[in-house]
Amino acid sequence: MSTDRKESVAARLNTVSMLGQAYSLLGFQIVNGVVGAGYPQKPKHSAVFAQIEPQGSRLTDLARRANITPQAMGELVDELEELGYVSREPDPSDRRAKLIVLTATGRAAVEAGRLTIAGIEVRITEIIGENGHKTLRRLLTKLLAEA
Amino acid sequence: MSTDRKESVAARLNTVSMLGQAYSLLGFQIVNGVVGAGYPQKPKHSAVFAQIEPQGSRLTDLARRANITPQAMGELVDELEELGYVSREPDPSDRRAKLIVLTATGRAAVEAGRLTIAGIEVRITEIIGENGHKTLRRLLTKLLAEA
DNA sequence: CTTGTCTTTCAGGCAACCTTAGCAATTATG
DNA sequence: CATAATTGCTAAGGTTGCCTGAAAGACAAG
After folding, report:
1. Which bases of strand D sit closer than 7 A to a protein CB?
2. Nucleotide nearest to B70 (CA to C1')
3. Residue ranges in chain A whose pLDDT is less than 70
4. Which of B27, B69, B109, B143 is the most exposed place for a label (fewest CB within 10 A)?
5. Which residues of A are less than 8 Å from B43 in CB distance?
6. What is the pLDDT of residues B30-65, one digit of tens each?
């Protein structure tokens, strides 16, 4: 139907859809990158990796920061424990609680994620230029602060 | 912890996260706007409204374009039929098929969506300026075309 | 100690998809 | 032009990713 190159996309999509597509496209690349580096996981697991602290975090803390219920976070942690990325240690300061801590494999997976994201940032810069990337971040920052 | 105003956000978030947050923030506003205008619906329903053609569309077409299975699309259409937005008419050109067509209420809901989106585009322009908005769209277009 | 409050877990539910397995209508083929 | 393959839809049931409710163990305050 549409014979144009990219005008057809730009002309038909509203800005919100474009943001959604860009996010979906690049977000997938993050998970793919980490999985491709040999650390299988699901998208939802990144919520844990993103929040967990070096010395370990409590389940309820992780849940609160990821904005899900402790029960849901418990399931995520079960899965990551199964995969060997985290372990549950007793919290010395409160015997009710357990600390979720990264295993060596877990730390390697986090590092792989960091590298993947860095790579994607580089790719973005290659596509829209250093100035474009800086401008994009500035515009998004302003949008997030005021919308 | 972070005492700065918006630098803390910009400094900590990668570009992909920023895109995700912006999409989530504005996407919600679309649904809220349409629901607020008196057309109750769920976010997933917009997949139908966005794809349906004026003269009606087949279930399988809608499913293919929304990238879900015909069964899942069938459920969406069931719900929208229940809400009075669409009806299933026999397709004169193929007696296996039915055409999903918008009712008068459905057309009004689509129009409400169009107006809501237009309002959000205006709001974006207010926040980042006409030039900023244009630049944002140009950068996103390039990103979508090449990433 | 008793009462109340955390931290975590167990059980069950719901939404939004999916797969599998039909049936009915249409199109292709020997 | 009969029959085989394909297409359009639907019915039934499974999976995923959350949720709420309820309960058990550990701690804090009176």
Report:
1. 7-13, 16-22, 25-27
2. D9
3. 1-11
4. B69
5. none
6. 999 999 999 999 999 999 999 999 999 999 999 999
DSSP code of residue B147: -
- Given a contact cutoff of 8 angstroms between Cβ atoms, the answer to whether B125 and B133 are in contact is yes
Predicted confidence at residue A124, as pLDDT, reads 97
Question: For residues B59 and B73, what is the distance between their CA atoms, to the nearest angstrom?
Answer: 7
Tens digits of residue pLDDT in A107-143: 999 999 999 999 999 999 999 999 999 999 999 999 9
Amino acid at B10: A
Question: What is d(CA A127, CA A122) in angstroms, rounded to the nearest whole number?
Answer: 9
Bridge partners of A100, per DSSP, are A57, A88
Cβ-based contacts of A143 with chain B (< 8 Å): 22, 25, 124, 127-128
Dist. CA A138–CA A132, nearest whole Å:
10
Measured in whole angstroms, how far is the alpha carbon of residue B33 from the centre of its chain?
Answer: 12
Q: Are the beta carbons of A30 and B15 closer than 8 angstroms?
A: no
Nearest to A25 by CA among A47, A7, A45, A9: A9
A96 CA to D30 C1' distance (Å): 22
Tokens representing residue B58 in the block: 């087949």
User: What are the structure tokens assigned to B82, written together?
Assistant: 């229940």
pTM for this one? 0.86
